[in-house]
Amino acid sequence: MKATSAILLSDMANIDYKTLFEDAPMAYLAVNNEGKINNVNQAALSLFGYRYKKELVGLNATDLYAIGKIRGAKAQHVFDQYADGKNKVRLETEMIKKDGSLFWGGIHVNAIKDTQGNLITRRVAIIDISDRKKSEEKYRKLFQHSNGLLCTHDMDGIVLTVNEACCNALEYTEKELIGTSIGDLLADNTRQAFGLYIKDILANHRSEGVMKMVSRTGKILYWKYSNVTHEEDGKMTVIGSAIDITELISREKELKQAKQMAEDSLRIKDIFLSNMSHEIRTPLNSMLGFADLLSDTSLNKVQSDYTSIIRESTERLIAIVNDILDFSKIESGHIEFQKAAIHPDELIDSVITMMSSKALMYGNKVTAKCDKNLPKVIYGDPVRLTQILINLLNNAIKFTDQGKIEVGAKTISKKKGKAILQFYVKDTGIGIPIEKLESIFDRFTQVESDHARRYEGVGLGLSIVSKLVDLQGGKIRVRSQVDKGSTFLVELPFDTEGEDSRSNKLQKGIELDHVDLAGRKILLVDDNRMNRKLVMAYLADTEAHVDLAINGKIAVAMMVKKQYDVVLMDMQMPEMDGYTATKVIRNELEDKVPIVAMTAHALAGEREKCLAVGMNEYISKPFKREQLMGVLGMLLNAKGTTKKRKTKKAASGYQHISLTELERNTLGNKEVMEELVTIFLEDAPRELQRLQNAVAEKDYDLLRQIGHSLKSSYEMLGAKAAFRLLREIEHWAADKEPIHRIADNTRLLLNLHPKVIRELDGVMGKDGK
Question: Are 57 and 38 in contact (CB under 8 A)?
C-alpha cells in the first residue's frame, strides 16, 4: 500500500513538473550529460522560431549559439561547465534562430540531481535580452564618444573602464589606463588627498571636488569631478564624470595676477604721489612761509607786488597738488566718511570766513542765506561738507569779478530722524555754455572759451565735489546762463539725531540755572587749562568743593585718598584717558561714584562707548552752564531753579572771533573772560610749537591729541575758522592722512593765530580801544 502511494505521488510530481515545464512562459531546454537537447517547451520553440520539438531534440545546445561567435574554445568551455555538474551557470551570448536571425540570449543553467547527488539532467532557461543589449551598446557608445571625461573604478580606485576623452586628455591608451590606480595619475603634491577621496566616496556614496591630474607628458590638468557609487550583481563600483577646468583655473590665476598688479600699481602710484607731494610741498611751504614773512617787512610797492605774486602762485600750486591727491584717493576708494555733529549755519559762516580774503581779491561780496527751518544740528561728515562748499565757493570766486556770491542751505525733506538738505553756491560770474553743462563734472574739464582760459586750475575741483557727493548718496546739479552766472546745488542726506543730540535732549530737558551743590565734593579731570577754568567759572557760585586733575592717572590716585560725590571726566587726555580711568575706578577701586563724560567728540556711538565703560552720563562740548547744572542736579538729586539768563548784545566788527560765543561761555563775566583769554595767550604759543614739532616728526598720535585739545580752546573764543582747521587736523591725524595736508592746515592756523590775538587784544582793551 505504501509503495503504491509513493509511486502515485511520484507520478503526480512528474505530471506537475511536466505541466510547469511545458506551460512556463520562459524558454526552457532539457540538456543531458553530453550536451544534447532532450526536451524543449513551447516558449523555447517560439523563441527560436521552430514549430516541432523534434527539430531541436538531439541537437547540441551549442548549436543554438550564433555561428562564429562562441564556437570552438568558448563553446567547449560552456559544455565543460555543463558536464561537471555544478549547480548554476550564467552567461550572455548571441544566439541564432531557425531563420538565421540573431538575438541576445541570457542563459541560466541549473543542474538537476537525484537523491544520491547524481546528475540527472540540466535545465537551461533562456530569455531574450536583445533590447537590454541594444541599450547597453547605445550607452557604451555614448560613454566612449562623450566629450565629458568618464570612467569607472572599483572601491580601491583602480580604473575599470575609461572613455576616449579621458585617454586623449591624459595621453594614454585605454589599455594602459585600465587597471591603473587613479592615485598614480594625480600630481605629486595632491596624492595624499586621494585617500581622503576614497574615504569620502565610501562614507557618502558620492564625492565632488577638483583633482589635479598629470598627463603622460607632464601637463598639469585640473578636473572638476562629480562621482557616485553604483551597485550591480552585488558588486560596488564608482561612476566618475569630470570636466576640464584647467583653462578656468589659468584665467583665475591671470585675474589674480592682474588684480595684484593693479593693486601694486595703485600702491606705487600712492607712494609716488605721496613722495611727489612731499618733494613739491617742502619747497612750496618754504616759499609761502618766507613770502608771508617778507610781506610783513618794509617793502616798496614793486617788492610788495612781487611778493603777492609769489604767494598767489605758490598757493595755486598747492591747491593743484591737493586736488590731484584728493582725486587719486577718491578714485582708489581710500576714503571714509565720519559722522559728527554739524551746525549748518555755522559751517557756512566758517567757509565764507576762510574764503573771504580770496573773495576780496576778486572784488566779490559773499553772503550767507540759510532757511529759517534749517535744522540746528545735523549729523554727517563736517570735513567733507566743508571741502565740498570750499571747492564750490572757490570755483564761484574764480569765475566772478566784482560780483555777488551767495552761499546758502535749505531743507528739502525731513522725517524720522533723517533730513535731506540742499546747499547751494550762486554767483554772478561768466556762466557756463549749455553744451558744457553735461561735462562740467568730468575730470580735467574746464569751460573752454577764449575768455575762460585765464582762470587757474586743472579742472579737478568740480569732479572731486561730484564724487564726494555721490559717495555720500547725494546729488549735484548746476543751472547756468552765459554772462549771468551759475548756481551749483548739492543735495545730501543727513541724520538729524546723533549720539550727542540724544544726550543734549536729555540735558535740555533738565537745564537749570542754579543747583544746590553746597558742600558737594566734585573732581574735575581735564588736561586743557581753559576747559578747567570754564567749568570752575560755571561752578563758582554753587559752594561746591572742586578738586582738579590734569589726567586720568592723577584722578585715580586722588580718588584712592578721597571720596567724591561726582566726577567730571574729559575723555582725551595724556598718560591715562577718561575711558581707562573710568575702567580703573569701576573695576579696581570698585567705586560707584557718578561719572560724567565731557567730550568734544560728536561721533556716532560715542555716548554708548562712554556708558559702556561705566560712565553715568555724557555731555558734549561745548556745553552751556545750564546743561551742566541739569546733569549734576539729576545725578545728585539736588534741588535746582530755572530762570532766563540775559546775555549782553555782542559788539560787532570781529572777523576771527565771536564775542557772542565768548560772552556766552563766560556767562558775561568780564573777570572770567579775562582769565580765559589770559590762559589762552599763555598756552597757545606753546601748543602751536608742539603742533609744528609733531608735524615735522610725523607723530600722528600727538597731532590728534593736540588737535583735539587746542580746538576746544579756539571754540570757546568763537574762533570758528581756527576751530575748523584743528578739527580737520584731528580727523586727518586719526586717519593718518598724508602729512602735507596737516602741514597745510598748521601753516594756515599759524597765519590765522596772530589775527585772533589782535582781536582778543581789542576785546581786552589792549589796542587802545
Answer: yes
- The residues, ordered by sequence, that sit 6+ positions from 150 with a Cβ below 8 Å of its Cβ are 143, 162, 163, 165, 166, 239, 240, 241, 242
302 in helix, strand or coil? helix
In angstroms, the CA 715 to CA 680 distance is: 11
Quote the radius of gyration of the chain (alpha carbons, Å). 48
* Section 421-428 average pLDDT: 95
Range of weakest confidence among 14-23, 76-85, 359-368, 446-455: 446-455
The domains found in the chain, sorted by start residue, are: 2-130 (3.30.450.20), 146-244 (3.30.450.20), 250-329 (1.10.287.130), 336-435+472-495 (3.30.565.10), 499-641 (3.40.50.2300), 659-763 (1.20.120.160)
Residue type, 245: I
Q: How far apart are CA 548 and CA 561, in angstroms?
A: 14
Exposed/middle/buried for residue 69 (C-beta within 10 Å: 0-12, 13-18, 19+) = middle
Identify the band that residue 656 occupies on the pLDDT scale cut at 50, 70 and 90. Answer: confident
Strand pairing report for 485-495 and 521-525: unpaired
pLDDT of residue 324: 67
Count CB neighbours of 586 within 10 A: 16
Q: Which triple of cell numbers denotes residue 434? A: 549749455
Cell of 408: 546758502
The label of the residue with cell 538537476 reads 112
Residue 559 near residue 550 (C-beta atoms within 8 A): no
Strand 88-96 to 102-113 pairing? antiparallel
Residue 746: all three cell numbers together: 598748521
Is 680:717 a contact under the CB 8 Å cutoff? Answer: yes
CB 135 within 8 A of CB 86: no
Give the model's pLDDT for residue 285.
Answer: 60
Calculate the alpha carbon distances from 157 to 178, 229, 399 in Å.
Answer: 11, 12, 80
Which residues on neighbouring strands pair with residue 597, listed in sequence order?
Answer: 569, 618
How far the first Cα of the chain sits from its last, in Å, is: 158
- The pLDDT of residue 646: 44
Which three cell numbers, joined as nine digits, stand for 126?
533562456
Q: How far apart are CA 349 and CA 386, in angstroms?
A: 11
d(CA 225, CA 314): 66
Query: CB of 640 within 8 A of CB of 514?
Result: yes
List Cβ neighbours of 566 (8 Å cut-off, separation of 6 or more): 520, 522, 523, 593, 594, 595, 596, 632, 635, 636
Three-state DSSP class for residue 512: coil
Q: How far apart are CA 566 and CA 486, in angstroms?
A: 56
Secondary-structure percent of the chain, ordered helix, strand, coil, rounded to 5: 50, 20, 30
**Nine cell digits for residue 437:** 553743462
DSSP 644: P
Number of helices (H), then strands (E), belonging to the chain: the values are: 24, 24
Closest by CA to 383, choosing from 357, 350, 356, 407, is: 350
The angle subtended at Cα 173 by Cα 171 and Cα 178, nearest 5°, is 115
Distance CA 586, CA 669 (A): 37
On whether the CB atoms of residues 720 and 749 are closer than 8 A, the answer is no
Distance CA(48)–CA(102), nearest Å, equals: 10
Residue 454's H or E segment, with its range, is none
pLDDT top residue among 558 and 535: 558
Distance CA 751, CA 744 (A): 11
What value, to the nearest 5°, has the Cα angle with vertex 659 and ends 653 and 665?
175
Using CA atoms, how far residue 15 sits from 74, 371, 535, in Å, is 36, 116, 124
Chain-centre distance for alpha carbon 261: 21
Q: How far apart are CA 231 and CA 710, in angstroms?
A: 82
The residue to which cell 603634491 is assigned: 189
Mark residue 666 as left, alpha or beta (left: phi above 0; alpha: psi -120 to 50; beta: remaining). alpha
**Where is pLDDT greater, at 635 or 157?**
157
